[in-house]
Specification:
A: MetI-like fold, 13 helices, globular, B: alpha+beta, six-stranded mixed β-sheet, 21 strands, disordered C terminus
Chain lengths: 274, 367
């Protein structure tokens, strides 16, 4: 007879059952319903609805801007987390609290704020627009807004890992003759990379789903600044439920594929921990 | 001299961690920095490595003043208490890291790493990552990494602190052998006096940032310069006595102190092995009850209570214990063969004294 493993959490059956129920009710059933609805279309219609130029432009913007925003967050979020963990300075607590702001702020408010800031007569737009940098009603505006909402993910994922880095490891590198740069690139960066990727994935996923702020900042011009989630809402407004679900299904499939690749990248990068 | 410290002090803000320390380590010597936690010994080690900058004083490595030479250029090997291995690199790359930085040729690196793997008994583990190694293996990788570029001195911070007792014992012996093979000047920090006594050629004893004594293990054990050293190295019974007519007294115990004026208060210390007991109540001068026996392996420690309530510790061998037929709760007679006055006279403590009430040696001395 197989030895029964002791598990401190009572009732594997119960907890697992609940987990499955929970996941099904919240995630699997709605997603399945979405796909069912989309597949009621004939293949030909599905193809036509999901590949019309307006939809293609929307996917491109959504995924392109989301990836770019996640990348910006990966770089500057890492920097921010580094500074928050490594240095003591006046106002550190305040800045630390500020990082969570995009989590809590209703995104519509964020959108409106960014919009008024970067518009031609806004505080920043006043100086930037004459320089040719237009941060409102453009694709740049979409990227800025997505960067804003994704910022906390990289910082908050990275912070605990940075805090757990042993100072001694860097000292060890120094006793072996390594410069600060060498230590950073040979030891710190590879150690932190998997976590940065995790933060990147979270920020990216958040950006793909973002709607509230973008409707305000992008101007929603067809082929130009219209994101896929907005297009879905337009279709729904037109009572074109099939069109909406078809686009949603494509959005989900692509997101899923990208997230899987990111996961793979992360597990490849953290090969030394297994 | 391989390492030399001259009037080295270190302050962290207002807190003095190290006070004007002077000592030197000879070429090829294996030396221990010993002291209780917070004694400043790790700070001394880190200053030698260049990881801390001394507030005052000069540090020399092989005759060269290194105060202004950065840690990267000092050519020292440093082994950290928690090993500080690079977890993103396998064993081979960890050991090769310093060599790559020093721009060794690939073939030379490979030869050197292979040599070290063999020397440290790590063959076959070169592709493993640190988390796949046991504590003892990690320790050896850390030592191999520190030794790779043939440093002039090897510095180890509590090298055996993080492994369990059994492996610690093995590693101690292994360090002695390694040091004998390589003959590299080695300085290690420990808070474990037994470890320092067992492993090192000489011991530097620190307490509260002050250097208390330097000497060979036997020297610091037999000729401690002050009460701190006497009590820190080995176990010691310490009593405070008051002198009356040339005899220091505390409760029923008397210690001759002919040179001391009346009313002087003295601190008296004696090692547990100096306390002899016998079930023959007529044999020795004092009476005591054996309260408890602690089995430490070949040696036993006895907790003895005198009629006045004073408690003394004695240490005897297993054979002696059996021959005397001792049991907890037994009434015994007791004597203190030798003792020491724990007050400085000149540079060191006065030599051990014999008690005047010497009785014939116990049976144990004939075994």
């Amino acid at each position: 007879m197989a030895e029964k493993k002791f598990n401190p959490l009572p009732g594997f059956g119960l907890t697992m059952g609940y987990t499955l129920f929970y996941l099904s009710a919240l995630v699997l059933i709605p997603v399945a319903a979405l796909f069912l609805k989309a597949f009621q279309l004939s293949w030909h219609d599905f193809w036509r609805l999901t590949t019309d130029p307006r939809a293609l432009a929307a996917y491109k913007l959504t995924f392109g801007a989301s990836l770019l925003a996640a990348l910006v967050n990966a770089i500057f979020g890492t920097l921010l987390a580094w500074i928050l963990v490594r240095y003591e300075f006046w106002g550190k607590r305040f800045i630390d609290a500020l990082v969570d702001f995009p989590f809590a702020l209703p995104t519509a408010v964020a959108g409106l704020t960014l919009c008024s800031l970067f518009a031609g007569n806004g505080w920043l737009g006043r100086f930037l627009v004459p320089l040719g940098i237009n941060g409102a009603y453009t694709r740049l505006a979409v990227i800025i807004a997505l960067t804003f909402v994704g910022l906390p993910f990289v910082v908050r994922t990275l912070q605990p890992v940075l805090e757990n880095l042993e100072q001694e490891v860097e000292e060890a590198a120094a006793t072996l003759g390594a410069s600060r740069w060498r230590t950073f690139f040979s030891i710190l960066a590879p150690t932190l990379f998997p976590t940065v990727v995790t933060g990147f994935a979270l920020a990216f996923a958040r950006a793909v789903g973002e709607y509230g702020s973008i409707v305000f900042v992008s101007g929603n011009r067809i082929y130009e600044t219209e994101i896929a989630p907005y297009l879905i809402v337009i279709r729904l407004d037109q009572y074109d439920y099939h069109g909406a679900t078809a686009i949603a299904a494509v959005l989900m499939l692509i997101s899923f594929a990208i997230l899987i690749s990111i996961n793979w990248l992360e597990s490849w990068a953290s090969h030394f921990e297994r | 001299m391989s390492i030399e410290l001259k009037n080295v002090s270190k302050k962290f803000g207002e807190v003095a961690a190290v006070n004007s320390v002077n000592f030197s380590v000879k070429e090829g010597e294996l030396m221990a920095l010993l002291g209780p936690s917070g004694g400043g010994k790790t700070t001394v080690l880190r200053m030698i490595a260049g990881l801390e900058v001394p507030t005052e004083g000069d540090i020399f490595i092989r005759g060269k003043r290194v105060n202004d030479i950065s840690v990267r250029k000092r050519n020292i090997g440093f082994v950290f208490q928690n090993y500080a291995l690079f977890k993103n690199m396998n064993v081979f790359k960890n050991i090769a890291f310093g060599l790559k930085i020093k721009k060794w040729k690939r073939a030379d690196i490979e030869a050197r790493v292979t040599e070290l793997l063999k020397l440290l008994g790590l063959d076959g583990l070169e592709r493993r990552y640190p988390h796949q190694l046991s504590g003892g293996q990690r320790q050896r990788v850390a030592i191999a990494r520190a030794l790779a570029s043939k440093p002039g001195v090897l510095l180890l911070d509590e090298p055996f602190g993080a492994v369990d007792a059994k492996i610690r014992q093995e590693l101690r012996e292994w360090l002695v052998h390694l040091h004998k093979d390589l003959n590299v000047t080695t300085l290690f920090v420990t808070h474990d006096q037994e470890e320092a006594m067992e492993v090192s050629d000489r011991i530097v004893i620190f307490s509260k940032g002050n250097l208390e004594q330097i000497g060979a293990p036997r020297e610091v054990y037999e000729q401690p310069v002050n009460e701190f050293v006497a009590r820190f190295i080995g176990v010691m019974n310490v009593l405070e006595v008051e002198v009356r007519k040339g005899v220091g007294r505390v409760n029923e115990l008397e210690f001759p102190a002919p040179t001391q004026p009346d009313g002087t208060r003295l601190r008296i210390g004696f090692r547990p092995y100096a306390v002899q007991v016998s079930p023959d109540l007529a044999l020795y001068r004092y009476r005591a009850v054996l309260r408890r026996t602690y089995f430490l392996g070949i040696m036993l420690r006895l907790e003895l209570e005198l009629p006045s309530g004073l408690t003394l510790r004695s240490r005897i061998t297993k054979e002696e214990y059996a021959l005397l037929g001792l049991r907890d709760g037994m009434n015994l007679s007791l004597q203190i063969r030798t003792y020491r006055v724990l007050a400085r006279e000149g540079g060191s403590l006065p030599p051990e004294l014999q008690t005047a009430y010497e009785h014939p040696p116990t049976i144990a001395e004939h075994i």
